[in-house]
Amino acid sequence: MIPPSLVAERAYERLIIEFAHRLDLGDPAEVAELFSDDGVWEWAEGDRRIQGRDALRSYFAGRPADRLSRRMCTNILVTLTSEATATATTYFATYRVDGYSNGYVPARPPTQVGHYEDTFLKVNGLWLLGSRSLFLAFAGPAEILEPADEP
After folding, report:
1. pLDDT value of position 44
2. Model's pTM, two decimal places?
3. How many Å apart are CA 117 and CA 78, to the nearest integer?
4. Does residue 23 carry a pLDDT above 90?
5. 85-98/143-144 β-pairing
6. Which long-range contacts (CB under 8 A, 24 or more apart) does 39-45 make?
7. Are the CB atoms for 34 and 123 separated by under 8 Å?
8. CB-based burial, 18-53: b 16+ in 10 Å, e otherwise
9. Under a CB-based contact definition with an 8 Å cutoff, are residues 97 and 105 in contact?
């Protein structure tokens, strides 16, 4: 029998991975569904704090349509704090360019490297993000690609 704590840890890890997948390969606005109704997304430095599922949906939907990004998440450390709550720290690197139209982009350094600090809670049997705080160790602006020449 699999211990319930391992099932919960895996559910939280799945949320972390799903977050990156929806931003990079899915519909960014759907990231909001991973948060509780009053969930919070914030950057530890600066004044970027978005709270509530509707505000989160609007924020993530505002991502540029021509953005190409890939997030690498690793070193996920989940700590269960009760049967229905947990915290986690996840390291990440984000590769990102704007102005993308097609094909592959030559390799470049990541735009951001840092870690997330998350809180999770179980609501009606479903695990959700209560909050996600982003801490950057290295950061720079997204590169804007030059338009491709038309043949």
Report:
1. 83
2. 0.92
3. 10
4. yes
5. parallel
6. 39/128, 39/129, 39/130, 39/131, 39/132, 40/130, 40/131, 40/132, 41/131, 41/132, 41/134, 42/131, 42/132, 42/133, 42/134, 43/133, 43/134, 43/136, 44/133, 44/134, 44/135, 45/135, 45/136
7. no
8. bbbebbbeeebbebbebbbeebbbbeeeeeeebeeb
9. yes
Alpha helices in the chain (DSSP H): 4-25, 53-61
Instruction: List CB contacts of 78: < 8 A, sequence separation 6 or more.
Output: 9, 12, 13, 86, 87, 88
Give tens-digit pLDDT for 44-85: 888 899 999 999 999 999 999 999 999 999 999 999 999 999
Instruction: Scan for tokens 């209560």, then name that residue.
Output: 130
Residue reference for tokens 């690793």: 74
Task: Give burial (CB, 10 Å; 0-12/13-18/19+) of 79.
Answer: exposed
Q: What pLDDT was estimated at residue 150?
A: 53
Contacts of 116 (CB under 8 A, 6+ apart): 16, 73, 88, 89, 90, 92, 132, 133, 134, 135
